[in-house]
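Morning F.,

Quick status update on the modeling queue. The single chain you submitted on Monday has been processed. Sequence for confirmation:
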Amino acid sequence: MDPFIFFALLQDGITTGAIYLLLAIGLLIVFSATRVIFVPQGDLLAFGALTAAGLQSGHVPATLWLLDGLSAAALLASLTGGVRAAGRALLVWGVYPAVVSLASVWLARREIPAVSILLALAIVTPMGPLIWRFAYRPMADASVLALLILSMALHFVLIGLGLVFFGPEEASVPALSTANFTIGALDISGQSLCVLGAAVALVVGLGWFFGATVQGKALRAAASDPLGARLVGIDAGATGSLAFGLAAFIAALAGVLIGALTPLSYDAGFEIGLKGFVAAIMGGLVSYPMAAAGALLVGVLESLGSFWASAYREVIVFTLLIPVLLWLSLRRGSDEDRA
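Structure tokens below.
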């Protein structure tokens, strides 16, 4: 292989791996706090990308009406929780959706890329807590298998809504940067650097959030010892809502980032989410550093595989699960023997 081709593929693999890293982090946050394997995260990625694309084309996306409908349902459900709970719910599920709706209707015609992306994030992010509120919270004590079946059911619901909302056509998100940098014979796009920068900024920001804020520490406590967290007064519902909100924001962010590199359709998020899941599995669904290494490995192998054996690219990526699961099984067995 020519060195230029190799480094071009390596650059593409690292950029793609950064997207998988974002999704793996979202999956780990949700699973550690709620035991939910959040399969619909990939669908929210597609929602984020296609919502931004719709706003940029001057249209008000149907995801906005989905947000308004779910928010209205959450507001009505909160009215029976007392004056304080109703007041908080009015602010979160009444005022916020109204502001986002008015901003979307007013600003969509301006077709400003940065505004379209920010509005897409504002529309998709609340869908995480709303999905938790109506789908997962009533089954919070169910088995992991039951929660996985529910996740698959929600995936099919969201993918169907995606087809109704956006149609079968692909769409692209406006790029955050159109710059291009040349290092020797290698061209590096500004959008690729934006992807890497966003991944690094998110990792640093989450590190600060989990270590320096009360909400972050509560989420860590719920992840490490759910029963102990409940005994000291940490609300499991609030931590679950926060975890799903973070995952939805991460998914929407990944969508607007990768949507500028390649056009996405309503069903494209599932495959991308699966590769993020492969990276999360490499971290045993508990280790963020191992998941980060796994995400970069998946991205690089996928990029190189597309050059050497494009027909087997997906096979190469998902075959990684076999040795990883075998190693995790052997390690768990050895840990139990020592115990």
